[in-house]
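User: C-alpha coordinates for this complex, please. No commentary.
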Amino acid sequence: MTTSPLIAALLCILENPWTEKGYKDLKFQYEVQGRTHEAESIQALIDQKFSHVDDSTDSEGQ
Amino acid sequence: MLTIQLIVKDNESTLRAALESLSPLNSEIRVADLGSKDRSREICEQYGVQIQHFRDVEDYSAIRNQLLGEGWNFYLHPWEKLVSGHEQILNTIGSSCYFDVYQGKNISREIRLCRGLQFRYPIYETLVDPAATKLPQGIIWALPHRRYEDAMPFIESWKSRSGATEPYYYLAWELLGQGSFTSFENIAKHYLSLEAIPKSSLMLRYRLAQVQLYNLGKPSEAATNALCCVGAKPLMAEFWCLLGDVYYAQKLYPHAKELYENAMILGARRPGDDDWPVELEKYKQHPTQMIESCEDMIAHKRLYG
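Assistant:
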Protein backbone atom coordinates (compact mmCIF):
# COMPACT_ATOMS: atom_id res chain seq x y z
CA MET A 1 0.00 0.00 0.00
CA THR A 2 1.29 3.44 -0.87
CA THR A 3 1.61 5.60 2.22
CA SER A 4 -0.24 8.80 1.42
CA PRO A 5 0.15 11.85 3.69
CA LEU A 6 -3.26 11.09 5.13
CA ILE A 7 -2.32 7.51 5.95
CA ALA A 8 0.99 8.74 7.35
CA ALA A 9 -0.92 11.05 9.72
CA LEU A 10 -3.12 8.16 10.81
CA LEU A 11 -0.10 5.96 11.40
CA CYS A 12 1.33 8.72 13.58
CA ILE A 13 -1.93 8.73 15.58
CA LEU A 14 -1.78 4.97 15.99
CA GLU A 15 1.77 5.17 17.28
CA ASN A 16 1.04 8.01 19.70
CA PRO A 17 -2.69 8.54 20.10
CA TRP A 18 -2.15 10.75 23.16
CA THR A 19 -0.21 13.44 21.28
CA GLU A 20 -1.58 16.18 19.05
CA LYS A 21 0.80 15.90 16.12
CA GLY A 22 -0.93 13.20 14.11
CA TYR A 23 -4.32 14.80 14.63
CA LYS A 24 -3.05 18.17 13.42
CA ASP A 25 -1.55 16.55 10.35
CA LEU A 26 -4.80 14.71 9.75
CA LYS A 27 -6.82 17.90 10.03
CA PHE A 28 -4.47 19.56 7.55
CA GLN A 29 -4.92 16.72 5.07
CA TYR A 30 -8.70 17.05 5.17
CA GLU A 31 -8.40 20.82 4.76
CA VAL A 32 -6.23 20.31 1.70
CA GLN A 33 -8.87 17.96 0.27
CA GLY A 34 -11.61 20.49 0.96
CA ARG A 35 -13.34 18.17 3.41
CA THR A 36 -14.33 20.94 5.76
CA HIS A 37 -16.58 19.01 8.09
CA GLU A 38 -13.97 16.33 8.67
CA ALA A 39 -11.30 18.99 9.32
CA GLU A 40 -13.57 20.82 11.77
CA SER A 41 -14.36 17.55 13.50
CA ILE A 42 -10.69 16.71 13.94
CA GLN A 43 -10.19 20.21 15.38
CA ALA A 44 -13.05 19.56 17.82
CA LEU A 45 -11.33 16.35 18.82
CA ILE A 46 -8.06 18.20 19.36
CA ASP A 47 -9.83 20.80 21.48
CA GLN A 48 -11.59 18.18 23.54
CA LYS A 49 -8.62 15.87 24.04
CA PHE A 50 -5.76 18.30 24.41
CA SER A 51 -7.01 21.71 25.51
CA HIS A 52 -6.48 20.83 29.16
CA VAL A 53 -3.30 18.84 28.68
CA ASP A 54 0.14 20.35 29.06
CA ASP A 55 3.34 18.97 27.60
CA SER A 56 4.24 17.06 30.74
CA THR A 57 1.35 14.65 30.25
CA ASP A 58 2.14 13.89 26.63
CA SER A 59 3.92 10.73 27.61
CA GLU A 60 0.94 9.31 29.49
CA GLY A 61 0.35 5.70 28.59
CA GLN A 62 3.62 5.13 26.83
CA MET B 1 2.05 -28.40 -22.93
CA LEU B 2 -0.92 -26.03 -22.88
CA THR B 3 -4.56 -27.07 -22.61
CA ILE B 4 -7.24 -24.52 -23.40
CA GLN B 5 -10.82 -24.91 -22.27
CA LEU B 6 -14.15 -23.32 -23.10
CA ILE B 7 -17.67 -23.91 -21.80
CA VAL B 8 -20.15 -23.52 -24.63
CA LYS B 9 -23.90 -23.21 -24.98
CA ASP B 10 -25.43 -21.69 -28.12
CA ASN B 11 -22.48 -19.45 -28.90
CA GLU B 12 -22.35 -19.86 -32.68
CA SER B 13 -22.21 -16.08 -33.25
CA THR B 14 -18.91 -15.65 -31.44
CA LEU B 15 -17.39 -19.10 -31.10
CA ARG B 16 -15.59 -19.14 -34.44
CA ALA B 17 -13.77 -15.89 -33.63
CA ALA B 18 -12.84 -17.24 -30.22
CA LEU B 19 -11.38 -20.47 -31.61
CA GLU B 20 -9.66 -18.62 -34.44
CA SER B 21 -7.94 -16.33 -31.94
CA LEU B 22 -6.61 -19.38 -30.09
CA SER B 23 -5.19 -21.13 -33.14
CA PRO B 24 -1.74 -19.40 -32.94
CA LEU B 25 -1.24 -21.16 -29.62
CA ASN B 26 -1.37 -24.51 -31.43
CA SER B 27 -2.59 -26.20 -28.27
CA GLU B 28 -5.14 -28.79 -27.25
CA ILE B 29 -8.61 -27.26 -26.91
CA ARG B 30 -11.27 -28.94 -24.76
CA VAL B 31 -14.87 -27.80 -24.93
CA ALA B 32 -17.69 -28.58 -22.54
CA ASP B 33 -21.02 -28.27 -24.34
CA LEU B 34 -24.01 -27.63 -22.10
CA GLY B 35 -26.59 -28.68 -24.66
CA SER B 36 -26.21 -26.28 -27.57
CA LYS B 37 -29.06 -26.25 -30.05
CA ASP B 38 -27.31 -24.01 -32.58
CA ARG B 39 -24.21 -24.70 -34.69
CA SER B 40 -21.74 -24.47 -31.79
CA ARG B 41 -20.86 -28.15 -31.84
CA GLU B 42 -20.42 -28.13 -35.63
CA ILE B 43 -18.02 -25.18 -35.36
CA CYS B 44 -16.04 -26.97 -32.65
CA GLU B 45 -15.74 -30.02 -34.86
CA GLN B 46 -14.46 -27.87 -37.71
CA TYR B 47 -11.61 -26.76 -35.46
CA GLY B 48 -10.95 -30.31 -34.32
CA VAL B 49 -11.50 -29.70 -30.64
CA GLN B 50 -12.60 -32.32 -28.13
CA ILE B 51 -16.22 -31.93 -27.00
CA GLN B 52 -17.65 -33.25 -23.78
CA HIS B 53 -21.39 -33.05 -23.18
CA PHE B 54 -23.03 -32.01 -19.95
CA ARG B 55 -26.66 -31.53 -18.86
CA ASP B 56 -28.31 -29.94 -15.82
CA VAL B 57 -25.20 -28.14 -14.71
CA GLU B 58 -25.13 -26.85 -11.16
CA ASP B 59 -21.41 -26.53 -10.56
CA TYR B 60 -19.34 -24.88 -13.29
CA SER B 61 -16.14 -25.35 -11.30
CA ALA B 62 -16.63 -29.12 -11.40
CA ILE B 63 -16.89 -29.01 -15.20
CA ARG B 64 -13.84 -26.81 -15.55
CA ASN B 65 -11.84 -29.05 -13.25
CA GLN B 66 -12.73 -32.02 -15.45
CA LEU B 67 -11.37 -30.16 -18.47
CA LEU B 68 -8.03 -29.29 -16.87
CA GLY B 69 -4.93 -30.75 -18.48
CA GLU B 70 -1.81 -32.01 -16.73
CA GLY B 71 0.41 -29.07 -17.66
CA TRP B 72 -0.46 -25.42 -18.14
CA ASN B 73 -4.08 -24.47 -18.59
CA PHE B 74 -5.74 -21.45 -20.11
CA TYR B 75 -9.42 -20.68 -20.41
CA LEU B 76 -11.45 -18.41 -22.60
CA HIS B 77 -15.17 -17.75 -22.70
CA PRO B 78 -16.79 -18.41 -26.07
CA TRP B 79 -17.81 -14.76 -26.37
CA GLU B 80 -14.21 -13.61 -25.94
CA LYS B 81 -11.33 -13.37 -28.34
CA LEU B 82 -7.67 -13.49 -27.39
CA VAL B 83 -6.41 -10.24 -28.84
CA SER B 84 -2.81 -10.29 -27.65
CA GLY B 85 -0.46 -12.05 -25.31
CA HIS B 86 -0.06 -15.25 -27.33
CA GLU B 87 3.73 -15.28 -27.06
CA GLN B 88 3.62 -14.44 -23.37
CA ILE B 89 1.26 -17.32 -22.72
CA LEU B 90 3.54 -19.77 -24.48
CA ASN B 91 6.67 -18.41 -22.83
CA THR B 92 5.29 -18.10 -19.30
CA ILE B 93 6.76 -20.38 -16.69
CA GLY B 94 6.84 -20.32 -12.92
CA SER B 95 3.54 -18.87 -11.82
CA SER B 96 -0.07 -18.40 -12.76
CA CYS B 97 -1.01 -15.14 -14.43
CA TYR B 98 -3.73 -12.56 -14.35
CA PHE B 99 -5.20 -11.23 -17.56
CA ASP B 100 -7.04 -8.03 -18.22
CA VAL B 101 -10.40 -9.00 -19.62
CA TYR B 102 -12.67 -6.59 -21.41
CA GLN B 103 -16.32 -7.32 -20.72
CA GLY B 104 -18.92 -4.81 -21.83
CA LYS B 105 -17.75 -1.56 -20.32
CA ASN B 106 -15.61 -3.14 -17.62
CA ILE B 107 -12.08 -4.42 -17.46
CA SER B 108 -11.65 -7.15 -14.91
CA ARG B 109 -8.48 -8.90 -13.88
CA GLU B 110 -8.70 -12.65 -13.64
CA ILE B 111 -6.31 -15.57 -13.42
CA ARG B 112 -6.56 -17.27 -16.80
CA LEU B 113 -3.26 -19.10 -17.06
CA CYS B 114 -2.37 -21.61 -14.40
CA ARG B 115 -0.77 -24.89 -13.55
CA GLY B 116 -1.77 -27.13 -10.69
CA LEU B 117 -4.77 -25.05 -9.61
CA GLN B 118 -8.40 -26.09 -9.31
CA PHE B 119 -11.44 -23.98 -10.04
CA ARG B 120 -13.55 -23.00 -7.07
CA TYR B 121 -17.13 -21.83 -6.54
CA PRO B 122 -20.11 -23.17 -8.48
CA ILE B 123 -21.36 -20.03 -10.25
CA TYR B 124 -18.47 -17.61 -10.69
CA GLU B 125 -15.91 -20.33 -11.17
CA THR B 126 -12.62 -18.85 -10.07
CA LEU B 127 -8.94 -19.67 -9.93
CA VAL B 128 -7.31 -18.43 -6.74
CA ASP B 129 -3.56 -18.18 -6.34
CA PRO B 130 -1.98 -15.64 -3.97
CA ALA B 131 1.28 -15.92 -5.93
CA ALA B 132 -0.28 -15.12 -9.30
CA THR B 133 1.39 -12.42 -11.35
CA LYS B 134 0.14 -9.95 -13.89
CA LEU B 135 0.76 -10.46 -17.58
CA PRO B 136 0.24 -6.94 -18.89
CA GLN B 137 0.38 -7.81 -22.55
CA GLY B 138 -2.45 -10.29 -22.25
CA ILE B 139 -5.64 -8.49 -23.12
CA ILE B 140 -8.80 -10.36 -23.90
CA TRP B 141 -11.93 -8.59 -24.99
CA ALA B 142 -15.44 -9.63 -25.66
CA LEU B 143 -16.86 -9.97 -29.15
CA PRO B 144 -18.84 -9.19 -31.17
CA HIS B 145 -20.73 -6.44 -29.45
CA ARG B 146 -18.20 -3.75 -30.21
CA ARG B 147 -15.76 -3.40 -33.02
CA TYR B 148 -12.10 -3.31 -32.06
CA GLU B 149 -11.85 0.44 -32.67
CA ASP B 150 -14.81 1.05 -30.40
CA ALA B 151 -13.46 -1.15 -27.66
CA MET B 152 -9.90 0.14 -27.51
CA PRO B 153 -10.71 3.54 -25.94
CA PHE B 154 -12.56 1.69 -23.19
CA ILE B 155 -9.67 -0.69 -22.72
CA GLU B 156 -7.11 2.11 -22.58
CA SER B 157 -9.24 4.11 -20.20
CA TRP B 158 -9.73 1.16 -17.86
CA LYS B 159 -6.10 0.08 -18.07
CA SER B 160 -5.15 3.42 -16.51
CA ARG B 161 -7.41 2.64 -13.56
CA SER B 162 -7.83 -0.37 -11.39
CA GLY B 163 -10.32 -2.76 -12.91
CA ALA B 164 -13.61 -3.49 -11.24
CA THR B 165 -15.22 -6.86 -11.24
CA GLU B 166 -18.56 -7.16 -9.57
CA PRO B 167 -18.68 -10.95 -9.36
CA TYR B 168 -15.84 -10.98 -6.85
CA TYR B 169 -17.63 -8.39 -4.74
CA TYR B 170 -20.80 -10.44 -4.48
CA LEU B 171 -18.88 -13.68 -4.08
CA ALA B 172 -16.98 -12.18 -1.15
CA TRP B 173 -20.20 -11.28 0.65
CA GLU B 174 -21.60 -14.73 -0.10
CA LEU B 175 -18.55 -16.40 1.41
CA LEU B 176 -18.73 -14.16 4.44
CA GLY B 177 -22.37 -15.16 4.89
CA GLN B 178 -21.33 -18.80 4.76
CA GLY B 179 -18.64 -18.24 7.39
CA SER B 180 -15.90 -19.28 4.95
CA PHE B 181 -13.49 -16.74 6.36
CA THR B 182 -10.28 -17.75 4.63
CA SER B 183 -11.98 -17.88 1.24
CA PHE B 184 -13.69 -14.59 2.00
CA GLU B 185 -10.34 -13.04 2.84
CA ASN B 186 -8.79 -14.28 -0.41
CA ILE B 187 -11.60 -13.03 -2.61
CA ALA B 188 -12.04 -9.74 -0.73
CA LYS B 189 -8.32 -9.00 -0.98
CA HIS B 190 -8.38 -9.84 -4.66
CA TYR B 191 -11.37 -7.58 -5.24
CA LEU B 192 -9.88 -4.75 -3.22
CA SER B 193 -6.64 -5.03 -5.17
CA LEU B 194 -8.66 -4.32 -8.31
CA GLU B 195 -10.86 -1.51 -7.04
CA ALA B 196 -10.04 2.17 -6.80
CA ILE B 197 -11.92 2.28 -3.48
CA PRO B 198 -15.42 3.28 -4.46
CA LYS B 199 -18.02 3.47 -1.72
CA SER B 200 -19.02 -0.14 -2.20
CA SER B 201 -15.58 -1.41 -1.29
CA LEU B 202 -15.26 0.51 1.97
CA MET B 203 -17.68 -1.65 3.92
CA LEU B 204 -16.15 -4.77 2.36
CA ARG B 205 -12.74 -3.62 3.57
CA TYR B 206 -14.23 -2.99 7.03
CA ARG B 207 -15.67 -6.51 7.12
CA LEU B 208 -12.35 -7.88 5.90
CA ALA B 209 -10.57 -6.11 8.75
CA GLN B 210 -13.09 -7.53 11.23
CA VAL B 211 -12.60 -11.06 9.92
CA GLN B 212 -8.84 -10.67 9.98
CA LEU B 213 -8.97 -9.53 13.59
CA TYR B 214 -11.72 -11.65 15.12
CA ASN B 215 -11.66 -14.81 13.01
CA LEU B 216 -8.22 -15.17 11.48
CA GLY B 217 -6.00 -13.68 14.17
CA LYS B 218 -4.26 -11.20 11.87
CA PRO B 219 -4.25 -7.93 13.85
CA SER B 220 -1.58 -6.30 11.74
CA GLU B 221 -3.48 -6.81 8.48
CA ALA B 222 -6.71 -5.83 10.21
CA ALA B 223 -5.11 -2.58 11.36
CA THR B 224 -3.95 -1.75 7.84
CA ASN B 225 -7.44 -2.21 6.42
CA ALA B 226 -9.13 -0.40 9.30
CA LEU B 227 -6.73 2.47 8.79
CA CYS B 228 -7.82 2.81 5.16
CA CYS B 229 -11.43 2.91 6.35
CA VAL B 230 -10.71 5.62 8.93
CA GLY B 231 -8.89 7.69 6.34
CA ALA B 232 -11.85 7.52 3.96
CA LYS B 233 -14.50 8.13 6.64
CA PRO B 234 -13.00 9.53 9.84
CA LEU B 235 -16.40 10.18 11.42
CA MET B 236 -17.41 6.53 11.33
CA ALA B 237 -17.13 5.50 14.97
CA GLU B 238 -17.08 1.81 14.09
CA PHE B 239 -13.83 2.23 12.16
CA TRP B 240 -12.08 3.80 15.17
CA CYS B 241 -13.59 1.13 17.40
CA LEU B 242 -12.09 -1.57 15.22
CA LEU B 243 -8.69 0.06 15.52
CA GLY B 244 -9.28 0.16 19.28
CA ASP B 245 -10.15 -3.53 19.20
CA VAL B 246 -6.90 -4.28 17.36
CA TYR B 247 -4.90 -2.71 20.18
CA TYR B 248 -7.14 -4.16 22.88
CA ALA B 249 -6.57 -7.65 21.46
CA GLN B 250 -2.85 -7.03 21.78
CA LYS B 251 -3.32 -5.83 25.38
CA LEU B 252 -2.15 -2.33 24.50
CA TYR B 253 -4.88 -0.78 26.62
CA PRO B 254 -3.69 2.87 26.70
CA HIS B 255 -3.58 2.90 22.90
CA ALA B 256 -6.97 1.24 22.67
CA LYS B 257 -8.55 3.66 25.15
CA GLU B 258 -7.48 6.69 23.11
CA LEU B 259 -8.87 5.19 19.91
CA TYR B 260 -12.20 4.38 21.57
CA GLU B 261 -12.32 7.98 22.76
CA ASN B 262 -11.78 9.13 19.18
CA ALA B 263 -14.75 6.97 18.19
CA MET B 264 -16.90 8.74 20.78
CA ILE B 265 -15.82 12.26 19.84
CA LEU B 266 -15.79 11.91 16.06
CA GLY B 267 -18.81 9.60 15.94
CA ALA B 268 -20.84 12.32 17.63
CA ARG B 269 -20.06 14.63 14.72
CA ARG B 270 -21.15 12.20 12.05
CA PRO B 271 -23.78 13.88 9.89
CA GLY B 272 -27.28 12.47 10.01
CA ASP B 273 -27.42 12.31 6.22
CA ASP B 274 -24.32 10.14 6.00
CA ASP B 275 -24.03 7.58 3.20
CA TRP B 276 -24.71 4.83 5.72
CA PRO B 277 -27.34 6.20 8.11
CA VAL B 278 -27.35 4.59 11.51
CA GLU B 279 -28.96 5.33 14.82
CA LEU B 280 -26.25 7.59 16.12
CA GLU B 281 -26.90 6.61 19.73
CA LYS B 282 -25.82 3.07 18.97
CA TYR B 283 -22.22 3.93 18.33
CA LYS B 284 -21.69 4.96 21.94
CA GLN B 285 -22.34 1.64 23.61
CA HIS B 286 -19.32 -0.33 22.45
CA PRO B 287 -16.66 2.37 22.95
CA THR B 288 -18.14 3.33 26.33
CA GLN B 289 -17.88 -0.23 27.57
CA MET B 290 -14.42 -0.69 26.08
CA ILE B 291 -13.09 2.52 27.60
CA GLU B 292 -14.24 1.29 31.02
CA SER B 293 -12.61 -2.07 30.35
CA CYS B 294 -9.35 -0.39 29.27
CA GLU B 295 -9.32 1.71 32.44
CA ASP B 296 -9.86 -1.42 34.52
CA MET B 297 -7.04 -3.22 32.76
CA ILE B 298 -4.70 -0.22 33.07
CA ALA B 299 -5.49 0.05 36.78
CA HIS B 300 -4.99 -3.70 37.20
CA LYS B 301 -1.65 -3.48 35.44
CA ARG B 302 -0.57 -0.64 37.72
CA LEU B 303 -1.50 -2.64 40.80
CA TYR B 304 -0.20 -6.02 39.80
CA GLY B 305 2.29 -5.28 37.06
